[in-house]
Amino acid sequence: MREDRRDYYEVLGVPRDADAKTIKAAFRKLALRHHPDRSKEPDAEERFKEVAEAYAVLRDPQKRADYDARGFSGVSGLTEEDLFHGIDLEDLFSGLGFDLGGLGGLFGRGFTMGSAGPPRGRDIEVPLVIPLERVAHGGEERVTVRRPSVCSACGGSRAAPGTEVKPCQACGGSGQHLETSLRGNVQFRTATPCATCHGRGERIEKPCPRCAGRGETFVEESYSVRIPVGAKEGLALRIPAKGFPAPVAGGVAGDLFVVLRTAPDPRFQRRGPHLWREETVGIPDAVLGTTLDVPGLESRIRVSVPPGTQPDTVLRVRGKGLPRAAGADPGDLYLVVHVRVPERLDDEQRALYEKLRSRDRAS
Hints:
This protein is α+β, with helices and mostly antiparallel strands and 363 residues long.
């Protein structure tokens, strides 16, 4: 991995909450601009590798979560093969006119061609909403997922037990038709799914009756996941091979990613490891100072409001927020102090305020 790296979101020009579609579109646009066969800039290849590295991290929920949590140190142990594993060149660059055969050499063995080996199943992301107390103490949570699974009767072949799956004669079992053309000295290769087998490369004479020839059935499963102490918002916990099954028999199933979300809490608003709360005091308490008894995660906390506190002053209580991972100092509790102005006054209150106003004007 590069040593002089820029922030991956900056490299792709996307916000930190960008979805997968936005990230892929940004990468395709930048790859088209910086590809060495198209750009005349001397650093085109390095720029191309930079955007590819950023895409490889941000497209993967687990790598992205590690990067969001710890920056470059969270992905520092990854090799090029780890980074680019499973990225399909044909899917990424279809329609852009790239010579796909030459792209893989830029990134070692990570990028794959769509026709190289059985395709991998898609990953599944499911949210898991946890209370602040679980973030503070960690522990086990269960998540229930309804997902497709390989049919137990046909093993994913889609054919009835005892029958054969034969190669599609129209495409020779490749699942696609390839057309190659030359425009000047640039070679263009277009791949389209086989119209006969719809890209599967197989011909099934008798579909499996249990799954109706789909090769998969839906199952509902419950998994236990361990929540680490101080888990960050959006942390993705990976459960291997529990995503979508491979689209063809013999392929590798995708992974299940459980994405942690913090449940709303009536006491606090979470901002990273810090907790925020609003409190309201009257004018006398803001002027003279007072002590507030406020809730904390474990027990109530007494907080001093200093004399002369102005509206919307923020008071910081160190160490009363959420714990951080890896034993770092815990976050803080922040109190936003609002000052309540009375809307109606009785005669005695009005007289006192008039007296105060007269003294202020005289001074």
